[in-house]
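Extended Data, panel c. Modelled sequence:
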Amino acid sequence: MVMREKIGYYGRSVIKKMPEKIKNYSRYLYYASKTPFNYRKNVNLLRYFTSVGKKEEIDYIPPIFGATISTACNLRCPTCLYALKDPDVFRGGKFIGVNDFKSVIDKYARVIEIVWLTGGEPLLHPELDELVKIVKNKGPSVRISTNGILINKNIGIMKSFDFINVSMDGYNYETFERFRGGKKKQFNDTLGGLSLLRKNNLKFMISFMLTEENLDEIYEMIKFGYEAKPAILNFHNINPHGSKEYTPLTKKSKKVNQILSDIVTKKNYPFDIQLPVIFDTTSKHFKMSKCIQPWHYCCFDDKGNISYCCHLRHKADIGNIFKGYNFNSDKMKNFRRLTINHQYPKEDCLYCQRRFAGEEYGFFNSRSKKWIL
């Protein structure tokens, strides 16, 4: 979820109806009103909103940092965005150094909004508590995306996060094994971790990946939500990265239209729900829509290597944030240029929901009991 999540459900509804030309300015005014006396951060945000999707060279700091603090993982998910490209991606995985991480946060914390800790599996990091303290002491929101298996061993640290996403994909052991490649003990440990989050009154989001092949199981996923009691139940469309085994959800599918239409007729869910972007593959917009991530995120791994976005591999030739990367390497500028001209890598980007952030099928607000479609 991108920074715009802070606008909330009603804000999304209002902005969704605005003309494209003024949407970003409206978002800027909203964010700036939240920190009216932080001149440096607000100037940085203004420069971002006037550059995103337009300029290949930027003069601001991306407002979100995505730190892959662990390139080790305790699962081998067949649908993993990294493993789809390289089955051995997590072999010999390592962890970001505390001092290296601190040097980055110390340098940029005054202007960035959010630091996401990701992996691999971030809860494997042996000094996770130190990394969290570094961010908390500097002010940005610190968030984590985890598979949940090790929550029970890290519940003390979990209390420090401003946002927790648990990527489940499986609602019982059979589907956990199918989509996550996990073992029975790992599934049970994940259930135990969710229970601990509830007992400690920690708000969390559960994410499920949807494909044409498993869409009819969304009812079971929602049923699982009633038991797990997340604050948000998030559904996202798969990006197959060229794999022929998974079919993204599209508007031409009768099953997609029928099931999602049925989901939004109900208004008694006890948690917020975000339904996925549904691709209209016959539209000009499907091919022309621009991703904001090359402007919005700074993604780096344990070695400091940069990636173009959170879905693509980190590479030293793009830049290294431990070695003076200035957000405008030749490779990054070229990627932004290609994105502006709709010449993104089709295998990786064509079916990526991040190109359509803000165009999700629907949002359910459990407090107002209303859908925003």
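The longest helix spans residues 184-199. This feature is highlighted in the accompanying rendering.
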